[in-house]
């Protein structure tokens, strides 16, 4: 049983002939659309679904051969079989018809049995052809889907809901897709609170619409013979086993004619009402898309977990490095945020912004090697002590090492005390010789150090700190900083204050 009646377009300028064809076809389960001339026939094909055309050869306005050629020249309609009806049985006319692309010929007066036999045979061929085209489209769609994933998959930003939107957009029937695809898709997702959320998807005026709805009682489907192949034809859905399921959905104003579904605890997808009979093949396509999505979700959560463990380890190492230092509260966490703010303002890529936020925490890790009496000394350091103190940059880079993943952290450790004018340490680098992450860290570190109470000084308020950095106080001078980073700092001053206040303790 097919989901809809095959639609036959009968084209003839003689009304009695059209009537006769209608009388043959309608009682046999076909839907008949008529046109009185070629022009009208082409208009109808453009605006509605047609499965087969019965075309008279001799017509005013536009002859049958020309109409047939126009149908076959159109990429969208070339698979619609055309039967030419003709009283002309000459070989010449048949050749003309074949050249125009006609599949079959019928002679007047009609023989009912012959009309039906030819139509049935051509519709079968068309059905197989449509399946082939659909299979090709599905393979192309799956390939594109895979390609999109390879090109755009970002495990740290993976969002299941937008991924589901994207796959449903591929599965669902748009206005122009006719009947090969389902008209409605229902999705059931297990949310973070361990509740099921339901969504109904449909294309409304070419726009994908997702509507949440609540299913009070869980939907129960009859046991499937093979749980991987859940496809339910119209004949099955009509049966008594499915009545409770169909009734329940009807209560939500959702009608089900046929259905293909993928069911799992985390994510279930129900594709409803294909305009043709559904098969195991539709199941394979749906399963493939949903399983890929679940795989991405699992991959994303594993990557996120690893990333969290990585950040945790970096923080633990950073905290260990504060062992001998005076208590600076959440200084190391705050500088990470300042650095990320500056990097973003400087239009650095997201990967850099994130890396600088995490790895900036290790800027003073080398202080593990600096004696506590130097770190905690209330007065000025002697030249010898100052030399030891400066070594923390070199020790830091050595501790972090040269793993590619820690490149920014290592670079910050060695260069965060370099100054734009060349007056910094340990290498007295100047201008752009200093890596950008070092230039960013320098200003972030300065801001926070000025605000904090230290053994040798009181803490400044935001306004005084801002003035010290932007105008200088003899000790800290604007020429120490990269002008571009300084400019970004000026624009972000209120954000710096907000981070400091939020993470003060
Ligand atoms: Fe430092
Ligand atoms: Fe610091």
Shape: elongated
The number of helices is 18
Strand order of the largest sheet: 8-7-6-11-10-9
Whole-number mean pLDDT: 88
Biggest sheet, open or closed, and with what strands and sense? Answer: 6 strands, antiparallel
Instruction: Tell me how many strands there are.
Output: 11
**Quick one: CATH superfamily of the largest domain?**
Hypothetical protein af1432
Could you give the order of the helices and strands?
EHEHEHEHEHHEEEEHHEEHHHHHHHHHH
CATH class descriptor name of the largest domain:
Mainly Alpha
**Cα gyration radius (Å):** 37 Å
Our estimate of the beta-strand percent is 5-15%
Structural class: alpha/beta
CATH architecture of the largest domain: Orthogonal Bundle
The total tally of domains equals: 3
User: Cofactors and ligands present?
Assistant: fe (ii) ion
**CATH topology name of the largest domain:** Hypothetical protein af1432
Query: Helicity, in percent?
Result: 40-55%
Question: What labels would you give this structure?
Answer:
alpha/beta, 18 helices, binds fe (ii) ion, Beta-Lactamase, 505 residues, 3 domains, Rossmann fold
Describe this structure as you would to a colleague.
It is a single chain. By secondary structure, this protein is of the alpha/beta class. The protein folds into three domains: 7-127, Rossmann fold, CATH 3.40.50.2300; 153-300, Beta-Lactamase; 322-502, Orthogonal Bundle (Hypothetical protein af1432). It has 18 helices and eleven strands. The chain has helices at 15-25, 38-47, 64-73, 91-100, 112-152, 160-171, 234-238, 243-250, 280-321, 331-345, 350-359, 372-375, 383-390, 392-400, 407-415, 436-451, 462-471, 483-502, and strands at 7-11, 31-35, 52-56, 82-86, 104-107, 182-190, 196-204, 207-213, 230-232, 259-262, 267-274. α3 links the parallel β3 (52-56) and β4. One fe (ii) ion (FE2) binds next to loops. One fe (ii) ion is lined by residues 363-364, 392, 416-417.
